[in-house]
Structures are given as C-alpha cells and as structure tokens.
Specification:
Layout: H1 14-26, H2 28-34, E1 36-40, H3 42-50, E2 55-60, H4 68-79, E3 84-86, H5 89-95, E4 104-109, E5 113-114, E6 125-129, H6 135-148, E7 152-156, H7 165-171, E8 179-183, H8 185-194, E9 199-202, E10 208-209, E11 219-223, H9 232-237, E12 240-243, H10 255-269
Parallel strand pairs: 2-3, 5-8, 6-7, 6-11, 7-8, 9-11, 9-12, 10-12
Antiparallel strand pairs: 1-4, 2-4
Length: 271
Amino acid sequence: MADEQLPGQRSLAIAPTLAHVTDLQRDRRYRDAHGQFFVEGVRTFVAAVDQGATVDMLLYSERLLIAPLARKLVRQLKRAGVPFARVSPEQFRAVSRAERVSGVSAVVRQQVRYLAHVTPGDGPCWVVLTHVRTPGNLGTLIRTAAAVGATGFILLGNSVDPFDPAVVRASMGALFQQTFVRASTAQLRDWADQHHLQVVGASPDGTVAYDQLRYTPPTLLLLGEERSGLSAEQRALCQQIVRIPMVAGVDSLNLGVAGSLLLYAIVRGAT
C-alpha cells in the first residue's frame, strides 16, 4: 500500500487518537457521549465499510496490515477524506484487544433509531431485549439474527449496549447487518398494536414448546435477562410464552444459545 499523503487527506495526531480509542473501549458513557465505537479486525472492518457504516477515523499499521482488501479500503477511505492515524505495530498492539492483531481498525458512528421512525419491515422477526448479563452472548445472538435474516433488535430502556467491545468482537461484523432501536415498554406495546404484530416471549414455564408454535412474521421475540427471565411487564406484552424443553436438572441455556434456537424456529415455523 503506497502510504504517501495526498492533498485533502487528514492525518491525525497519534497520541490523542490512541487516547480516544482507549476511552471508547473502556467507557460506555464516553462512547455514547461521542456517538462512536471502535472496531478492529479485517472481517469487521470490511463489513462496516460494505454495509455503509459511517467511519469517523481510521487507525492502522502499515507493517501489520497485509490483507489486500483491507488495504484497498483504507486507501479509498483516506482519499475520501476520512481522518487517519498511521501507527507503529507497537502502538497498534497497545490499543488492540484482538488475539491476533490485523493492523486495521476504525472509529465508527453509532446507529440507533427510535421506534416512532421504524416500520416492522419484511424480515421474519425482531429480537427484544432489556438486559444482557454477558456481552459476548449478545454478539453471538447478533450473528444468528443476521444469519436468519432478522430485521434487528429493539432495546427496551438503556441497559443493553450493542457497541460494547465484547459485543462488537463476538458479532464478527454481523452488527452492521442489523437495525438497532431503543424504546420504552409502552412505546413497544403501542407499536406492536399499531402493526398487529405477534409478540412471543421465552421462559422455562412457557405453555408451548418453542418449535410447536406457528409464528406470524414479523414476530417480536422477547428474551429476558439470563438469570431472572422475563419481567411481569414483559410477560404482559406477550400473546404467547414458549419454552425450550430440557432434561431434568438443567434449568437454563445462555442467551446466545437459547436465542439462536428460537430464531431458527421462528424462521422455520413462520406462516
């Protein structure tokens, strides 16, 4: 990659850029205040660009970055005027959380919509969440949602952070194929009523096995917090609560596994 700086390109000071990236990774309040998050790795970086995410700045190491496609995209973004910082391998490793550094990363604009501006769409379902105990499980669920063609995630309240570094890393780029919406429970109830949507919750005490229900797309799938399950308020939203059968002595599956089973059942059982 010829790394000369052309007219119109914007090179950033390295120390402030590294400090900004570090703060984006460790502090949610800082992420949300700036409306940004950090991505690294060739696969995630390419997915962000391919899906039209807004890249606010690039951080890369010429010596570490060997993937031809990523090198090409870095050149294109620089020529388009995206600010960049070219760093040494040591500087790149200092902010990387990847097991194997790729030499390419970016600061990307958060994209969160509000329910009043969203239509249900043509996908088979939306996933509705209020709390997630383990961020990596959410990343796994995002990958599955993208795989089945789900439209996105409706996040009730402000607890769930889809831009946590562990979520971004586990999603393997699928984050950029999903729509993220924030809403209150009341807003979701009104939206579901307005569009005549099927609302299904999941709980061990559900009255129907998850693979026996007929699903009407787009279904709203409510998943409770891993330990406490669905709240009374969430249950009140649901027309049906399904269960995943398990042998005696096993009381739960993690969010990523349970949600993935349910998503595939919805796609297979959609009418």
